[in-house]
């Protein structure tokens, strides 16, 4: 038995590697830069965890979300690894001081792009041996860095202090453009690339155009109350996520809403309840889902058109991690394309905002926090006109990305095949339940939901209370 397989069995309890895992780990240990694109559920965490036990030094993992960091820390602790920490807002002042003073004692350090700009943290990092650096959910560099988290772009400057340290970039989906952004931002030198097919044969695709918003709500409520989950309902706004959750709860569904405006503790609680099977559905904005370790998600429903094909594939890919049949449904109306563009543009500055920001002291003007954060970054690196041109181009690209996804639903071609083609892949074998354009039988895809007596009593009381209160 070779050393890698031995560590795999002893530390992680697996008898064999999945496709590509061993090759990627070998490259990381050899000190090579690596880009690994594997679908959700293919064991991306193992790719940075296992090599740590075969090389000297500390692994620094740059992660996009607090909840994702906390979850990965807990997973490592369950495995018996005590030398792990997430440096984020969950640490008290005293805890953070202790960690910084003892940084060299940790094998795994999780942190955020924002924390990488902390002077003291960087000073302490420079005193310890770094084995390699991990960019987890690396597509965020391209998808979020230009949009609302410019600290993702600042990673490029931060890495100049670690020129001899190799970088491992991990993500579930990435177009050629996103891969190019990752390579450039992370200063990768002829990286080893492993790109797994994005095709998920056990996920069937269903797309329906409806007449109006009321019909859409009725369709979604009907689908969720008559079929089995677990599932995630993705919607565009905080208000809608709360609305759907209330409607479904009134019908006896174990459901919660989730969005970025909630307290962090509440969001983590809902994520844990969903993962542990205490909730059957979560009605959420796209803030939910990254890092969810739940194998048996049977349904993903979108009540809108996402802002890109990559975002759509990322979100539906959270279903069927166990390989069993699941369904990704998307329902929309004719006005949803414009609505998707409006939502995508909300935080982007207009030309006048950019001119005002460049010509005034930042304390003198009132712009949304996200807009101010974005412009503060670009003011450091671009002229006023260059920034105006940049955001004009970004807006145009956003519109084209939305149109590209919408166009998939406006023809009679296989949805799966079109999604694959967008990532320069071709469909080699069509599953028996593919999409509603070609082979698809809803009875084979979804199990009908049976109401328990408790649920029926709950529904009866809800109905009677509503009759009394209205």
Automatic annotation (TrEMBL):
GO biological process, one term: DNA recombination
Keywords: ATP-binding, Helicase, Hydrolase, Nucleotide-binding
Record-linked PROSITE patterns: HELICASE_ATP_BIND_1 (PS51192), HELICASE_CTER (PS51194)
GO molecular function terms noted in the UniProt entry: 3'-5' DNA helicase activity; ATP binding; four-way junction helicase activity; hydrolase activity; nucleic acid binding
One protein family per Pfam: Helicase_C
Recorded GO CC terms: bacterial nucleoid; cytoplasm; replisome
Domain Helicase ATP-binding: 25-192
ATP-binding keyword on record: yes
InterPro entries given in the database record: DEAD/DEAH_box_helicase_dom, DNA_helicase_ATP-dep_RecQ, Helicase_ATP-bd, Helicase_C-like, P-loop_NTPase
Domain Helicase C-terminal residue range list: 216-371
The protein's name: ATP-dependent DNA helicase RecQ
């Amino acid at each position: 038995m070779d050393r890698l397989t031995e560590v795999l069995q002893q530390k992680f309890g697996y008898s064999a590697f999945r496709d590509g895992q061993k090759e990627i780990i070998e490259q990381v240990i050899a000190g090579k830069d690596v880009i690994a694109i594997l679908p959700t559920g293919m064991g991306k965490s193992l790719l940075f965890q296992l090599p740590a036990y075969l090389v000297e030094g500390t692994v620094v993992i740059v992660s996009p979300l607090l909840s994702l960091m906390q979850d990965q820390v807990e997973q490592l602790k369950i495995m018996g690894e005590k030398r792990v920490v997430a440096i984020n807002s969950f640490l008290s002042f005293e805890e953070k001081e202790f960690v910084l003073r003892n940084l060299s004692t940790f094998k795994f350090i999780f942190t955020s792009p924002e924390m990488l700009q902390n002077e003291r943290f960087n000073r302490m990092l420079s005193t310890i041996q770094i084995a390699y650096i991990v960019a987890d959910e690396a597509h965020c560099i391209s998808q979020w860095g230009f949009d609302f988290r410019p600290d993702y772009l600042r990673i490029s400057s931060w890495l100049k202090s670690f020129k001899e340290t190799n970088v491992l970039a991990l993500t579930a989906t990435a177009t050629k453009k996103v891969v190019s952004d990752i390579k450039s931002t992370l200063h990768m030198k002829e990286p080893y690339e492993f790109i797994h097919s994005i095709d998920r044969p056990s996920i069937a695709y269903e797309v329906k155009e409806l007449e109006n918003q009321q019909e859409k709500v009725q369709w979604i409520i009907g689908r969720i109350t008559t079929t089995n989950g677990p599932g995630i309902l993705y919607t565009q706004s905080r208000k809608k996520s709360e609305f759907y959750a209330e409607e479904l709860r009134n019908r006896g569904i174990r459901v919660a809403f989730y969005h970025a405006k909630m307290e962090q503790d509440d969001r983590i609680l809902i994520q844990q309840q969903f993962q542990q099977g205490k909730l059957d559905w979560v009605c959420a904005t796209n803030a939910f889902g990254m890092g969810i370790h739940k194998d048996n998600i049977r349904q993903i429903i979108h009540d809108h058109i996402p802002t890109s094909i990559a975002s759509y594939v990322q979100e539906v890919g959270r279903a069927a991690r166990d390989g069993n049949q699941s369904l990704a449904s998307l329902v929309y109306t004719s006005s949803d394309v414009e609505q998707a563009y409006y939502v995508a543009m909300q935080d982007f500055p207009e030309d006048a905002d950019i001119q005002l920001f460049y010509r005034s002291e930042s304390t003198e003007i009132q712009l949304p926090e996200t807009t101010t954060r974005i412009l503060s970054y670009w003011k450091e690196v671009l002229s006023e006109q260059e920034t105006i041109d940049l955001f004009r181009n970004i807006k145009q690209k956003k519109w084209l990305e939305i149109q590209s996804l919408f166009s998939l639903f406006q023809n009679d071609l296989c949805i799966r095949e079109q999604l694959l083609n967008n990532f320069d892949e071709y469909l080699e074998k069509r599953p028996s339940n593919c999409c509603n354009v070609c082979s698809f039988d809803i009875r084979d895809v979804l199990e009908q939901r049976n109401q328990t007596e408790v649920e029926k009593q709950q529904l009866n009381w809800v109905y009677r209370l509503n009759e009394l209160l209205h």
